[in-house]
Design goal:
The complex is a heterodimer. Chain A is built from 9 helices and 17 strands. Chain A is an alpha/beta fold. Chain A folds into 3 domains: about 90 residues, Beta Barrel (Elongation Factor Tu (Ef-tu), domain 3), CATH 2.40.30.10; about 120 residues, Nucleotide-binding domain of ferredoxin-NADP reductase (FNR) module (Rossmann fold, 3-Layer(aba) Sandwich), CATH 3.40.50.80; about 80 residues, Beta-grasp domain (Ubiquitin-like (UB roll)). Chain A starts with a helix and ends with a strand. Chain B has 2 domains: about 400 residues, no CATH class; about 35 residues. In chain B, α3 crosses α10, α4 packs across α6 and α5 crosses α6. By secondary structure, chain B is mainly α. Classes of the chains: A alpha/beta, B mainly alpha.
Chain lengths: ~350, ~425
């Protein structure tokens, strides 16, 4: 299959299909029959907690696999419209049955995560990217490893720890997880089993409803590390969770002069106030690496004010010359007042104003 | 990079409320009001007319959904199937009926790809689907024109400055005289034969349209911009030529032992004819959309300071529809509803026939003409126009090289220079 795939993806074949790609023809035979486009069929949707679910996927041959800790862009089509979100891969890399899974906590305003939790059915075909992200385990693990996660930030860490379990890793692993309560925690039973079956030290702290006999409680604090006997300067540390958790871990590691040990990843949840008429937040021009305070003008105008020269035509939303990928955040159409909050969504920047923090590919 | 471009004497971004789509040209002089449409209705009615049209557009936008997505995917599916069948047919030059059928199917596939898929997708009509394969920003079509440059000359220039002399280069494509407002040159005597040749090589004409040598020479675009246009055009030409005239004929070499030495030539010829059939069809549809007799053109001065209602009026007076069956509409990419397309260029084209009765009623209620007719009638009208305007006009001001016209141009130039000078002085003073 590899040879056929390479042949079909070659430039020679492309010269026959130009200006389209071979995938544009193959997908007409079967939607999963593509050379470049990663697609997958949903095998199963497992409900983990009241608002979290794991989606088991069987990707097509274009999928090149993942490294524990990586995430994937996940696109579902609803009402003719593709909505894309980034989710972490949560299963073990040792899994050899040709499937992988992502675990998602339904965000109250998250259209895709809600859809996944409530409506996604097996056999649906979803559009993916290759696995991406630098938040991964190294080939050689040091003796001391600390994994820290909060809330749904557990998913990439879960993939790491499951992989280490399946590989029979024998090093010193401490896994410290913060959840609001046990009912709110994903993978509770598996974490219990993990604590029993392996030498990994699994510590869970429930911030809102602590266990009666819990030794530790509350949000992350340097005392938690001290209590566990973790030496920050000597432990490779992975942290994933909400911005608040990462900020306080980072501060602690700075105080302990151990920031070189820290690997962090956070999920960008757009800080959006959809009704705000005033201009707040920061606009990030990702490609050029510039940022500016949101002035409330259109993204195109703000890009120009920041010294960029994006392509534009009519500046009135007709000609589509200025269409650019919005990477994160929300933008409101100045006429329809419709808010576009999807990840990696193409918008006409001449007729969209940022709502809160926005990042665009300019 | 676009800042240097001055198609419009009015900088595109000086438009007030430019955040509305679509929006009129505005004037730098707030006192100046456009007089478009005043022969039909009052200024208040024009405003109201604009609001009515906005309403039609908004209702369609609110209703977009699965049906539109399914439609364009179905069209793509049919198009791909036709193309593959067509290519297979062309590989059977030993069986003439199959070969002819292949030729017809390939031509049909190219027509659908260019019209209903390419043109409409590149208008951004399906961008709301967020599907990268049918996104106006990235789509590339099966024709020698690079999408990037076509989007500029078509989506931006032609659709914004529709039928304004000196701004919309689609009036006669710098080659033909199709309107009384264009100055007459002696080569216009050959209007009809030139149009016929243009019809056969239409894709090349549109391609050269996107490489703006004249604008570069006149200093209206930067060298960098011009070189970019040239490079994109060459790359696209190379790909298109390699596909139709090298790759597929080369593949047909395997037929040589069974069919004869001429098999690759048959494939090459079939591809060539399919491209020409597509050229003829697109030329006819496009010429019928803007050049029948009743279609109006405008002077830059007319459009300046136009309101939203007047923008709509200018768009519809500058376009003509072709009536026909459902299949006919699909094969024209629904550009047979040129009026609806120019009013609402970025809504999915399958919606044009749906809103047409409503649009027509709104237009006719205001005493405006909804220009529509059978294909034959519109074609005849276009040919008649080409013949009439090819003749040397008796009015010397319409003849480009007459002393009278030269004097007029000189006066205009001086007036312009004086205005620029005054503006500069005013800026300095400020």
């Amino acid at each position: 299959m590899g040879v056929i795939r390479r042949a079909l993806g070659s430039r020679a074949v492309a010269s026959f299909t130009s200006p389209h790609t071979i995938d544009h023809y193959l997908e007409q035979i079967h939607p999963l029959l593509t050379v470049d486009d990663v697609r997958a069929r949903v095998v199963e949707v497992v409900h983990e907690t009241g608002d979290a679910s794991t989606v088991v996927l069987r990707p097509n041959g274009a999928w090149r696999g993942f490294v524990p800790g990586q995430h994937v862009q996940f696109g579902v089509e609803v009402d003719g419209k593709r909505r894309v979100r980034v989710f972490s891969v949560s299963n073990s890399q040792a899994n050899r049955d040709g499937t992988f899974s992502v675990s998602v906590k339904a965000h109250p305003d998250g259209y895709v995560s809600q859809f996944l939790h409530h409506e996604l059915t097996p056999r649906t075909i979803v559009h993916l990217s290759q696995a991406e992200g630098e938040f991964v385990l190294p080939d050689e693990l040091p003796d001391q490893v600390l994994m820290l996660s909060g809330g749904s930030g557990i998913t990439p860490v879960m993939s790491m720890i499951r992989t280490l379990r399946d590989r029979g890793h024998t090093g010193d692993i401490t896994f410290l997880h913060y959840a609001r309560s046990r009912a709110d925690e994903m993978f509770s039973d598996e974490l219990d089993a993990l604590a029993d079956e392996t030498d990994f030290r699994v510590v869970r702290i429930y911030t809102r409803e602590p266990e009666p006999d819990a030794a530790l409680e509350g949000r992350f604090h340097v005392d938690h590390l001290k209590h566990l006997g973790v030496d920050a300067s000597d432990s490779l540390t992975y942290v994933c969770g909400p911005a608040g958790l990462i900020a306080s871990v980072r501060d602690t590691y700075e105080d302990l002069a151990a920031t070189d040990q820290l690997r962090a990843e956070y999920f960008k949840v757009p800080t959006v106030d959809l009704d705000a008429a005033d201009a707040t937040g920061t606009i990030t021009f990702d490609t050029s690496g510039r940022t500016a305070d949101n002035s409330g003008a259109t993204i195109l105008e703000q890009a120009e004010a920041a010294g960029l020269e994006p392509a534009y035509g009519c500046r009135m939303g007709v000609c589509n010359t200025c269409a650019v990928k919005k990477l994160h955040g929300a933008a409101r159409h100045v006429v329809s007042r419709e808010v576009q909050a999807d990840t990696d969504q193409t918008i006409k920047i001449c007729v969209h104003v940022p709502v809160g923090d926005v990042s665009v590919a300019l | 990079m676009s800042r240097k471009r001055t198609y419009a004497p009015i900088e595109p971004h000086s438009a007030t409320d430019h955040n509305e789509a679509p929006t009129p040209l505005t004037s730098d002089d707030p006192e100046h009001q456009s007089n478009i449409g005043l022969e039909y209705m009052s200024r208040e009615d024009l405003e109201e007319f604009g609001r009515e049209m906005d309403g039609v557009r908004q209702r369609v936008l609110d209703d977009l959904g699965q049906a539109d997505a399914d439609y364009i995917r179905r069209v793509i599916r049919v198009q791909r199937a036709l193309e593959v069948l067509g290519r297979i047919g062309l590989f059977m030059p030993f069986f003439l009926p199959a070969f002819i059928a292949g030729l017809a199917l390939l031509a049909l596939a190219k027509i659908i790809e260019n019209m209903e898929i390419g043109h409409n997708v590149m208008h951004g009509q399906y961008d709301w689907m967020n599907d990268p394969t049918i996104n106006g920003k990235t789509y590339e079509w099966d024709i020698v024109v690079p999408g990037h440059d076509w989007k500029r000359t078509h989506n931006y220039v032609h659709h914004t400055y529709t039928n304004i002399h000196g701004m919309d280069k689609d009036i006669g494509y710098n080659l033909l005289r199709i309107d009384n407002g264009q100055p007459w040159y002696p080569n216009h005597r050959f209007n009809l034969p030139l149009a016929f040749v243009l019809m056969l090589i239409f894709e090349w004409g549109v391609m050269s349209h996107g490489v703006e040598y004249g604008d570069f020479r006149a200093g209206r675009i930067s060298e960098e911009e011009f070189l970019g246009q040239k490079e994109r055009a060459w790359r696209k030409i190379r790909r298109q030529l390699v596909k139709d005239y090298v790759a597929y004929p080369a593949l047909a070499l395997v037929l040589v032992p069974f069919v004869g030495w001429w098999a690759p030539l048959a494939v090459l010829g079939g591809n060539l004819v399919a491209n020409v059939i597509r050229n003829i069809w697109t030329f006819l549809v496009i010429f019928c959309g803007h050049f029948p007799a009743e279609v109006q053109t405008f002077e830059e001065e007319d459009a300046r300071g136009e309101t939203r209602g007047q923008w709509y009026v200018r768009q519809l007076l500058g376009s003509a529809n072709i009536s026909g069956s459902r299949l006919f509409h699909v094969l024209t990419g629904n550009l047979s509803h040129q009026i609806e397309h120019h009013l609402f260029p970025d809504i999915p084209a399958r919606r044009y026939p749906v809103i047409a009765p409503e649009v027509r009623a709104l237009i006719e209620r205001r005493g405006l003409e909804y220009n529509t007719g059978r294909f034959g009638r519109q074609l005849f009208s276009v040919a008649h126009q080409l013949a009439v305007f090819g003749r040397k006009p008796s009015d010397p001001y319409l003849v480009a090289k007459s002393p009278e016209s030269r004097a007029l141009r000189r006066a205009k130039r001086e007036e312009q220079a004086r205005r620029a000078e005054a503006e500069k002085a005013a800026r300095m003073a400020a």
